[in-house]
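From the pipeline queue, job 12 of 40. The input is one protein chain; the requested action is below.

Action: predict structure.
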Amino acid sequence: MMKRIKYVFLMVLCLCFVGCNNEFAETEYENAEKIADSGDRYSKEMSVFNHVNGEYTLTVSKFNGRETLWTKSYKEACEVSLEVSLALSEGQAKLVHIDADDDVTTLVECTPENCSGETVTIPIAMTKGKNRIKIVGYDCEDLELKMVFDGE
């Protein structure tokens, strides 16, 4: 009997932790230091990421956290145009650029109310050195992203 009580207690405890494990994504959504960190921290379900002929696509049924989608080093500073479409049915997400100095710039931010998946062209000032693009979000469902860089 005690063994069964311990088992039930452990199951309830595990369920509590599972239910709370994505809170980090919302609390860190505006934290530039966490976003700029070289490591990624995310949870996602049913995810497909493709890179074909300079076009990047990401489809995720559920997403929480931050994930690097693109990295490139430049020998000198330059400006690049990025065509982006982003849409989701629930939650909040943004696409950010992180330059070589770990400065974070939001390129596009999306909620179900303000994003329809239309394509926008965004100029990005790339710095000399390593530049990254990350997706950052919380409580995201049915997230769809498409990115195309000019000249890549």
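Job complete. The chain is about 20% helix and 55% strand.
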